[in-house]
Amino acid sequence: MTMAPERTAVRVELLVDQRWFAVCELTDLTPGRGVAALLPDGAQVAVFLDRSGRAYAIANRDPFTGAYVLSRGLLGSAAGRPFVASPLLKQRFDLETGRCLDDEGVAVQAYVTRTRDAAARGA
Amino acid sequence: MSAPITPSAPITPSAPITPSAPTTMTSAPKAAPPAAPTIVLIGHGMVGQRFLEALVRRNVTEAAARIVVFCEEPRPAYDRVQLTSYFSGRTPAELSLVEDGFMARHGIELHLGDPAESIDRAARTVTARSGLTVAYDTLVLATGSYPFVPPVPGKDSDGCFVYRTVEDLLAIEAYAEHRTTGVVVGGGLLGLEAAGALKGLGLTTHIVEFNPRLMAIQVDEGGGAALRRTVEDMGLIVHTGVGGKEITADDAGAVTAMALSDGSSIDTDLVIFSAGVRPRDQLARDCGLEVGERGGIAVDERCRTSDPAVYAIGECALAADGRVYGLVAPGYEMAEVAADAIGAGEPGPVRGTGFGGADTSTKLKLLGVDVASFGDAHGTADGCLDVVYSDSRTGVYKKLVVGADGALLGGVLVGDAEAYGMLRPLTGSVPPVAPEQLVLPAGLGAPAALGPSALPDEAVVCNCHNVTKGAIRSAVADHRCTTVPEVRKCTKAGTGCGSCVKALTALVNDELEAGGVSVDKGLCGCFAYTRAELYEIVRTLRITTYAQLLDSHGRAEARQGDGCEVCKPAVGSIIASLAPTLGASGYVLDGEQAALQDTNDHFLANLQRNGSYSIVPRIPGGEITPEKLIVIGEVARDFGLYTKITGGQRIDLFGARVDQLPPIWARLVDAGFESGHAYGKALRTVKSCVGQTWCRYGVQDSVRMAIDLELRYRGLRSPHKLKSAVSGCARECAEARGKDFGVIATSTGWNLYVGGNGGADPRHADLLAQDLDDEKLIRLIDRFLMFYIRTADRLERTSAWLERIEGGLDHVRDVVVDDSLGLCAELEAMMAGHVTGYRDEWAETLGDPERLRRFVSFVNAPDAPDPTVKFVPERDQVKPDLTILSGPTLPVRTLEGTAGR
Ligand SMILES: Cc1cc2nc3c(=O)[nH]c(=O)nc-3n(C[C@H](O)[C@H](O)[C@H](O)COP(=O)(O)OP(=O)(O)OC[C@H]3O[C@@H](n4cnc5c(N)ncnc54)[C@H](O)[C@@H]3O)c2cc1C
Ligand code: SF4
Ligand code: FES
After folding, report:
1. Cβ B886–A66 below 8 Å, yes or no?
2. Contact B58, B339 (CB under 8 A)
């Protein structure tokens, strides 16, 4: 397994088990879309960038179908909060909390994210 | 309104009833209690059904009365007025006038295919062909008419038909196959409809009319001349002032020719008699009821015959005004009057006046010919004057008859009956503008279209159902109808011959506007505009990005936001389809476009339930070489893909991981395949049958046409997917009438059908134009598709679009065939831009390393396959291993009507 190269300016990090884990570079992301990434324990996360350049991450598994596809949904915002709509059956998930907007009882794990200058890393 | 009428034959309990035989559509257990009176209806045609509905509305069913219906035809009542639409794709089931479950719900016993054969008025019984005898308290005759067949020798030969029932049409259609020529005897309204139908079946068609002009009853001499020109321009051959003298047949008894009274003769395979109708009054004669000298069961103003227990309604009745009406509207009126009389005392409106006569306005429903007459068309009133506009170049003739006091009395419109919906309701009143302005074509001093706002409230807008402007306004204002379909349902206006729909639509819109009703038709929570409006905004303001559109035209609360999953792909598609016009990049993976597309468009493949994708290479027209078939087989084998032949005549390959898409497509592109756009809201396939090249029935090369069309429109982004098909003859093996645009070969060219749909909401496509050559066909499809793309709502198939847009098919025909909006050049130019700008999306993607970067399962592990996409064997192929995913299955969230959130 090759990890992403470590040179470019800004990287996206998630808080996993109290530690910051770098998943990709900011330039790997397109505003309005997501990518899937693997965590060290093999779990899959979906990482998104909104229009203003903020990154979000939630679990990649769509709880309604069991398929690992949330990273392929379309981003949107409702009442100022960003969401992703599952590409399969279109349920929406709040990107900050992981809560499903169309079914109160359902939620996916949400991760805290930050973007870091590569230079600032280690500092 | 006067006091309720007491029927002279009050309903009283009758003697025990002969038990009824088991029947097709009854609900015996729900039959009325033994004390209830029995109403027997003979004839389940248009008026008969209307009578049953009238009884139901007055609650004269089940508990109040036992109702027994004898129906001669093998099917329940259907829309005879629209009979000819069978040839443009309406199925007999679609023509039905009887709502599902109507008979059962109201406990009505309907005996299909069992005509009444005798009436015993002394015993008050009716006996049917099956032997079934039913006792009645009240008997209603609604037996309609039969077509009159003149006594020409040979009239019973094989190949001689009449034009009255669905069965007649089925027989004509079957007989016309492989035959080349047909004659219609009678150049009246029905004869012209029949002739149009024969023409549509590909026959060389003659019309033989005894009178010196066509439609002699409805139009005057000038109108007849204009009509003749129009009809001849359609390719029909008209013989006026002559009659059929003899029909000759071959040894087998099949028609071969028809000799005419002027000594000439027409070689023909088929003859349709359409020389008028006669009331079916034989049953009444046999039982001694009074009938008119020239036929028709004599009735009074309450529709009672000479026996007060027997009523007659519809075309079989000779009304109190001494006329037999051959139109449906007066028949409906009689049905209501009779139901009133029979059910008097029951709740429901009671008419004080009864049936005393009716309007005989008509409009011809013939493709491409506009003919209408209304009121006193021949100007018979004392001191009346004609106002005539005639232009023989364009075949337009309009005449209005104006009374001495300036009131509009009637008129004839040929070649341009646009104003009919407005003029007819004005009949009897003094028009708001000078009559000459009403006949002038737009632009020549005519008022900018006289709107229905000019009509008084009591003007009858829908003649078929006698609906006034006031009733329509009240449907909107008091019954809260907010759409034309709702108003149609509520008032029945526009559900008869359809000629009033234009006026109706304008009226409903005016009324909605006046009431300040604003329905949020916005696309979603982000945009208050409809898709069609956004399309216009993007086109005229040349907006090339979604963000630009959202920030300038989004709802205030949505600006600067991220949009939503509803409007992003919709706007993406609008920009993509306008790309050649806007000079934007049409490539769906470029720049911001990448973030707008649904996942399928994003990966140029179709996402399946376990996160894998399917791959569909284009196979134009369904034609494929053995070499290409082998490549598909090898690719599927090498990548372990599941293969299935689709309904669209191509091959789907299922089960590819996202990272496998580029290598799979590299091999397919190498072998000459292109993207099939199965993932996009775009043209899918153009199916074809083998056509003339191989099939013994074929009359054109349907495969070549299908390939041409598929290559022309491939990649065209539209509000929803587009499907098409081409059949090589009228047998229609390619099922073209189930498609958004379908083409069926005729001996002289192609017929184009539009608005068809399969799936959950099937609809047969409607005939848009016929006998087109290749070039005309393609030009017309260009215009049609671009007009649809421009005006349809998001995810609105052509079928729903045609049903929704104002004016329906006629309007679309006006725009794309007659260029009434002057749009055609622009529509064609846009399609030309699409055709030249087309590039294969997969070939482009493979050539661009930047674009290929997204085809990885994990951004931080580009070489790792997704472990959750796994397969297990089934029937020698693979299927998704769902145990890995095992989760609950939940319903799909609907995306419709999202404006609220
Ligand atoms: C092609 C065509 C186009 C037309 N276009 C128009 C138009 O544009 N506008 C317009 O106003 N009108 C039009 N008409 C006329 C319209 O269809 C009739 O006015 C209308 O159908 C009359 O209804 P009805 O119930 O009286 O008769 P029908 O609809 O003919 O029904 C009579 C029924 O009674 C049945 N019957 C007869 N005898 C018996 C028996 N002994 N036992 C049981 N059943 C029996 C018949 O089989 C038939 O089904 C058109 C007619 C045709 C054929
Ligand atoms: S539709 Fe095509 S295949 Fe069917 S009979 Fe006609 S030409 Fe032959
Ligand atoms: S006038 Fe025929 S449907 Fe309204």
Report:
1. yes
2. yes
